[in-house]
Specification:
Chain B: This is Cytochrome C. Chain B: InterPro entries: Cyt_c-like_dom, Cyt_c-like_dom_sf, Cyt_c_Planctomycete-type, DUF2231_TM, Fn3_assoc_repeat, LRR_dom_sf. Chain B: GO terms for molecular function: electron transfer activity; heme binding; metal ion binding. The structure holds 2 protein chains of 2 kinds. In chain A, the strands form 5 sheets. In chain A, strands 1, 4, 5, 6, 7, 8, 11, 12 and 15 form a 9-stranded mixed β-sheet that branches. In chain A, strands 2-3 form a two-stranded antiparallel sheet. Chain A has a two-stranded antiparallel ribbon with strand order 9-10. Chain A contains 13 helices and 17 strands. Chain A starts with a helix and ends in a 14-residue tail after the last strand. By secondary structure, chain A is of the alpha/beta class. Chain B is α/β, with parallel strands linked by helices. Chain B folds into 5 domains: 3-165; 190-305, no CATH class; 321-470, Leucine-rich repeat, LRR (right-handed beta-alpha superhelix); 481-562, Immunoglobulins (Immunoglobulin-like, Sandwich), CATH 2.60.40.10; 569-723, Sandwich (Jelly Rolls). Chain B is built from 20 helices and 24 strands. In chain B, β5 (419-421), α19 and β6 form a beta-alpha-beta unit. In chain B, α2 (34-40) packs across α6 and α4 (48-62) packs antiparallel against α8 (139-165). Chain B starts with a helix and ends with a strand. Classes of the chains: A alpha/beta, B alpha/beta. At the A-B interface, α1, α9, α10 and α12 of A face α1, β1, β5, β6 and β8 of B.
Chain lengths: 484, 724
């Protein structure tokens, strides 16, 4: 009897359980109505990102990154260290150098004598920022600039450091920052590539730049950086061949698009759709690019502002001017690379030349954006891939020395795009070797850039080979203190 | 209660349990539509029911095992139903609360406590409801359970009240706290309105009269001056030795660092304010207004008092997505400001295709457009009438458009317009100064490259203090810069007959003056370069660029080389270095010169080189040529062991078998420390008619004694030869 009662209890409970559960499941279904993204499965991590639309209201719409390739010496430009002059020729204290890994170029050096800047510094603007005499034009605009003196990176050689800054990883194959932004923000102007690259070279010791730095990695190839070169054809193969008129080109593209569309219908490969889009954009670029690249109608004021070299294609000044024109026309990311900052030796001579090449035009770009009311929506960045050592590389003479690679600290500046103007952030020790305040890792820097463009660096992700990728990899925090 | 109802309600309770568990689990993904928000907001209304009902139910439950009640059917039924009703109402309340908590402004520890205790009550009450009929459910369990529920109700209610009214709501009137609301900077007292709020935010949660950690309270002036266990915390006038700042400045890892790690830290601005306030004698009643403007403390304190600018929220509805898509075209992009934002930004490109229609078509989304970029479009005043209807427009770019002051009037009705760019337009000072005050919310106006002069811009700025009037760079003739040197635009510096020298400069209006006698070009006396200058022989041209308002350029040298004869075929009798192949035998007559410099390695720049054998080049002519000189162009870079040829021999004749030595010449050797350079050496001889010509250039066999590679063979690099 007891057994029967027990069994009765069980069956009753099961029935009640099931009916209760069905209601429960119903309630789950009801709840899921409130979670639009809950059951989207694989795309869940891309939640919050509709490619082409920022996550939140952006401060900046565009970026111009004046990359100083080769690593400019912060000790000669912005990070004023009088103590280094006092200690000229003295050995760097081991407590300062610590366990720092050195490059193969100085690791076997018998001694590491400190050397101060050969050039004098002065303070400028409301922030009383120190700027060396090598940068007189930059000195005039410090009220618009935010210096970050406490950047640091993980790589010690050019290629990995450069790749790290551009893609968030020291190895290649990841999308470049410009590609990520193109992916996250979409086009503002459909007649120009979203991400363009301009190269120039100074007289100083140069380091290579290569197209992997503006690669789209695993992102859709429409996000690849397009290099604009200095020759007659700024964008290679864009011009119609001789004898082909506009209408022929149009007809050809229409027919080609039909063919491509057929294979798209068959295979559904998104790269085919991308290809069709790129052909169309190239067609429109055929008129848009020559217009943007035409420097002949720039006013005398503009030439004086950027300096006379700005009309010589392929120079840094010309690239700065072009950067403004491209950005003004809605190009989201304009990446400049200026080679020649790798002063292992003969530093005083070479850096003087390098600084002369870039100073006026860099400052001019900021001023030019400002006078067009564009600086507040354009983030301008100036800096290299790492810093240089406070001790000399090679022979030390009163007027000649060199500096090796130094990842522990370097200085960059930013302007516009919602970054606090007239500010100095971070600090290095009095020998300019270690950061003592507010360190900014490369991923922090990248997170901050994305933040200014309305993108959450943790949400701007792309799924590839079974995992999610971000520009900031698995770290990085937005530097709130430099955001206005 | 009817048993069917009760069963149904019981099942509903199970469902509610699952539903709430589910919501709690996926809480982060909850997106609450507006209509549900209103339900969420009824949480404070409904919550009183479960509190009262559950309190009553628990009271009854506590006594439910007393014999007189245990046997009372009504008591038991009533209690069971009451508990069920209470639990269900708790479910409703919890669900509403969860909805409400997803709204902005609800976060932090208190919310968490409230949420989990609240949900806990619900789960616990349901639990009691389901188990109370079990055999093991006896008086002690019932009593403990009901007491626990009551305690939880009190705690949850307390946290809820704290959420709604603030932590100190109940005791506030007794404590008579000071008004900390926003205060006009003119009336602000630095201590009361700046220093004290900082301390209250970051310090007094542990250092107050109730909770005097380290026997220190920081709530008011007296206790601040009194200090704590470790002594006085501030020394007026001496921030360096004030314990308050010492603790703040300690490294965060340090145990004595304040606030303790994990607690909100002081910002650099706040630390600076404390520092400066103590430095200024830590005065408790000094007003902010009594500090001179520009004083550091004044600036920081004023910034602290300024209300944080909140991100603009828009109260207009979103536009129809299909309409936005339809309006997007190749030359007009319409993009949302951000995800879930109704605001739109519109950019219009391509001057050639612009018409007013492009603006007119935007009528359906005119409420949503907050930024409009018409840079360089042929926009006229009539177009501005259309733009005047974009009521929520904040940012307008009209740079280099064809607008006038008359048209701008149509924009004064745009109450939200904060940024206006009219650089490169024809607006005059008089017009703008009359117009600007009508723009009430304008924050910045760019007027670069307009007829406005520098003093006028200053004047305008003075008259419109609330806006930033952005001028820009205008060359006033005082910015003297050095011109860059002229460029030679000829495709090659090597020519056969005559060459029209093309000296050009990228800047308009530059004069190029030149000399060919080796003297420095003069800005007045030297001839002006023009396309008609014909050269008939190899020349060394010096040129300089001049323009008013600029310093003359540096002198630039162009060497042009005449090479009258092009051999019909060339071949080498001895090999070139493996790495210095250039284009083989063709290198020497390809009219391309090599480049020198650290960034231009010889192997990649048209340099043919030999080291271990002679350079022997044979040229053949189909038509016999009358030749009287042979020139050879080579590189010298003493430092890297690149030397001129030691000897050059020229052989010629009718064919390869019958060649005679026509000339043999030596070159000038560099001295130690000479800079790298490119040179030409020419051997002249009596004119000879030849069909076959052999040129033998021998590399330096022994590098001189002074050189680090003394005794070794030198490298010879040649890029071009000239036959005349």
């Amino acid at each position: 009897m007891e057994k029967e009662i027990l069994e009765h209890g069980f069956s009753f409970n099961r029935r009640r359980f099931l009916s209760g559960m069905s209601l429960g499941l119903g309630s789950v279904a009801l709840g899921s109505l409130l979670m639009p993204d809950l059951l989207k499965g694989g795309n869940r991590e891309e939640e919050g990102l509709t490619p082409g639309i920022p996550h939140f209201a952006p401060k900046a719409k565009r970026v111009i990154y004046m990359f100083q390739n080769g690593a400019p010496s912060q000790q000669e430009l912005f990070d004023y260290k009088p103590k280094l002059r006092e200690m000229f020729g003295k050995e760097i204290p081991p407590s300062v150098r610590g366990m720092q890994r050195l490059t193969g170029m100085t690791a076997n050096q018998a001694s590491f004598p400190l050397v101060g800047s050969f050039v004098d510094f002065a303070q400028y603007g409301d922030s009383r920022a120190w700027v060396s005499n090598l940068m007189p034009y930059t000195a005039k605009i410090v009220n618009d600039l935010c210096f970050v003196k406490s950047m640091y990176t993980e790589a010690i050689n050019h290629d990995p450091a450069l790749t790290f800054l551009q893609t968030g990883s020291q190895q290649g194959n990841r999308p470049s920052m410009g590609s990520w932004l193109s992916y996250g923000l979409g086009n503002e102007n459909k007649n120009l590539p979203n991400f363009t690259v301009l190269l120039s070279r100074g007289v100083g010791n140069g380091q290579g730049v290569y197209s992997k730095l503006w690669s789209n990695g695993f992102l859709d190839s429409v996000h690849q950086g397009v290099q604009f070169s200095k020759g007659e054809d700024p964008v290679l193969y864009l011009r119609d061949p001789d004898g082909m008129n506009r209408q022929d080109r149009r007809d050809m593209l229409d027919n080609l698009a039909q063919l491509n569309d057929l294979s798209y219908q068959e295979f559904g490969d998104p790269e085919i759709a991308a290809k069709i889009k790129q052909y169309e954009m190239a067609y429109r670029m055929q008129t848009a690019v020559p217009e943007v690249m035409d420097l002949s109608r720039e006013s005398d004021d503009i030439v004086k502002l950027y300096g006379p070299e700005c009309l010589v294609p392929g120079t840094y000044a010309a690239n700065c001017l072009l950067a403004r024109k491209l950005s003004e026309n809605g190009v989201r990311f304009v990446q400049l690379y200026h080679q020649g900052w790798d002063q292992h030796g003969n530093l005083p001579f070479e850096i003087t030349k390098q600084a002369m090449d870039v100073d006026q035009a860099s400052a001019a770009l900021v001023t030019d954006l400002k006078q067009r009311g564009l600086l507040d929506e354009t983030l301008v960045i100036w800096g290299g891939e790492f810093g240089r050592t406070s001790y000399t590389q090679g022979k030390l003479a009163a007027d000649n020395y060199g500096r090796d690679h130094h990842p522990r600290c370097f200085t960059i500046w930013m302007a516009g795009g919602g970054i606090k103007p007239g500010m100095v952030y971070g600090e290095t020790d009095e020998l300019g070797y270690n950061i003592i305040k507010d360190p900014v890792h490369v991923h922090d820097f990248q997170a901050t850039i994305l933040h200014q463009l309305g993108l959450d660096h943790e949400k701007l992700v792309f799924r590839h080979l079974g995992r999610r990728y971000r520009l900031t990899d698995v770290s990085g925090k937005v530097i709130k203190d430099i955001i206005s | 209660m009817h048993s069917k109802f009760r069963t149904f309600a019981g099942q509903l309770l199970i469902a509610a349990n699952i539903f709430i568990l589910f919501l709690l689990f996926f809480e982060n993904k909850l997106v609450i539509p507006a209509w549900l928000q209103t339900i969420g907001r009824m949480h404070p209304l409904i919550l009183h029911f479960p509190i009262v009902i559950l309190l009553l139910a628990m009271l009854l439950e506590y006594f439910s095992f007393r014999p007189e009640y245990a046997k009372n059917q009504f008591y038991r039924n009533f209690l069971h139903n009451l508990l069920l009703a209470g639990s269900l109402l708790a479910a409703v309340t919890v669900i509403m609360g969860l909805f409400l908590s997803r709204e902005e402004g609800y976060e932090g520890e208190i919310l968490n406590y409230h949420k989990w205790t609240g949900a806990g009550i619900f789960f616990f009450a349901s639990f009691i409801y389901f188990i109370r009929s079990s055999t093991w459910y006896k008086a002690p369990v019932a009593k403990a359970g009901s007491l626990l529920t009551v305690a939880a109700l009190v705690v949850t209610g307390h946290y809820g009240a704290a959420l709604t009214h603030g932590m100190n709501f109940i005791w506030e009137p007794i404590e008579a706290r000071k008004e900390a609301a926003s205060i006009a900077p003119e009336q602000a007292v630095v201590f009361t309105h700046v220093v004290q709020p900082i301390l209250e935010q970051k310090c007094t949660s542990c250092h107050n009269a109730d909770k005097m950690k380290g026997q220190l309270s920081l709530t008011d002036a007296q206790s601040l001056l009194k200090g704590g266990k470790s002594g006085k915390v501030l020394v007026p006038g001496n921030p360096e030795i004030s314990l308050l700042l010492e603790r703040i400045h300690m490294p965060t890892e340090e145990k004595k660092h304040m606030p303790p790690s994990g607690k909100p830290q002081l910002t650099p601005q706040e630390t600076a304010i404390l520092h400066l306030w103590i430095k200024d004698q830590a005065k408790f009643d000094k007003k902010l207004a009594s500090y001179p403007s520009g004083d550091s403390l004044q600036i920081l304190a004023a910034a602290y008092l300024k209300p944080a600018s909140r991100e603009t929220e828009f109260d207009f509805p979103s536009a129809d997505e299909a309409e936005i898509t339809a309006l997007n075209s190749d030359y007009r992009t319409i993009v949302p400001l951000a995800k879930n934002s109704p605001a739109l930004a519109v950019n219009i490109y391509n001057r050639a295709t612009y018409t007013s229609k492009q603006l007119n078509e935007l009528d359906g989304i005119r409420k949503q457009v907050i930024a409009l970029n018409l840079n360089k479009m042929p926009v006229n005043d009539a177009d501005l009438e259309i733009i005047g209807k974009f009521e929520n427009l904040q940012k307008l770019n009209l740079n280099f458009t064809e607008i006038s002051a008359g048209g701008l009037k149509a924009l004064t009705g745009l109450k939200n317009l904060s940024s206006l760019a009219i650089s490169g337009t024809k607006i005059k000072y008089s017009e703008l100064s009359a117009l600007l005050p009508a723009f009430k919310n304008l924050k910045s106006v760019s007027v670069w490259n307009t007829p406005l002069s520098e003093p006028e811009i200053v004047q305008l700025q003075k008259a419109n203090g609330s806006m930033a009037i952005i001028g820009g760079f205008k060359d006033d003739g005082k910015n003297m810069l050095r011109l860059n040197p002229p460029q030679m635009k000829n495709s090659s510096p090597v020519f056969a007959g005559t060459m029209a020298l093309q000296l050009k400069h990228p800047i308009n209006g530059v004069e190029i003056r030149y000399t060919m006698d080796g003297s420095e070009p003069d800005s007045v006396k030297s001839p002006l370069a023009n396309d008609k200058l014909l050269l008939a022989k190899s020349e060394n041209i010096k040129a300089k660029a001049f323009k008013n308002g600029w310093y003359g350029s540096e002198t630039v040298q162009f060497e042009v080389y005449k090479c009258s004869f092009q051999p019909d075929s060339v071949h080498l009798l001895a090999p070139l270095n493996r790495v210095h192949q250039a284009t083989g035998a063709k290198t020497f007559f390809d009219q391309k010169l090599g480049v020198i410099g650290a960034n231009n390695p010889a192997w990649a720049n048209n340099w043919a080189g030999v080291k271990d054998n002679d350079m022997v080049l044979v040229s053949e002519f189909k038509k016999p040529a009358l030749i009287s000189s042979v020139g050879i162009h080579y590189m010298i870079e003493e430092d890297t062991g690149i030397f001129p040829p030691e000897i050059v021999e020229v052989w010629g004749g009718k064919d390869a078998e019958s060649m005679k030595l026509l000339s043999k010449f030596k070159t000038e050797m560099p001295a130690k420390g000479d800079k790298p350079s490119l040179k030409t050496m020419e051997g002249k001889f009596k004119p000879q008619t030849v069909s076959c010509l052999k040129i033998v250039a021998k590399p330096l066999n022994k590098i001189p004694e002074w050189h680090k590679s003394k005794g070794n063979k030198a490298l010879l690099l040649v890029d071009e030869m000239f036959l005349n």
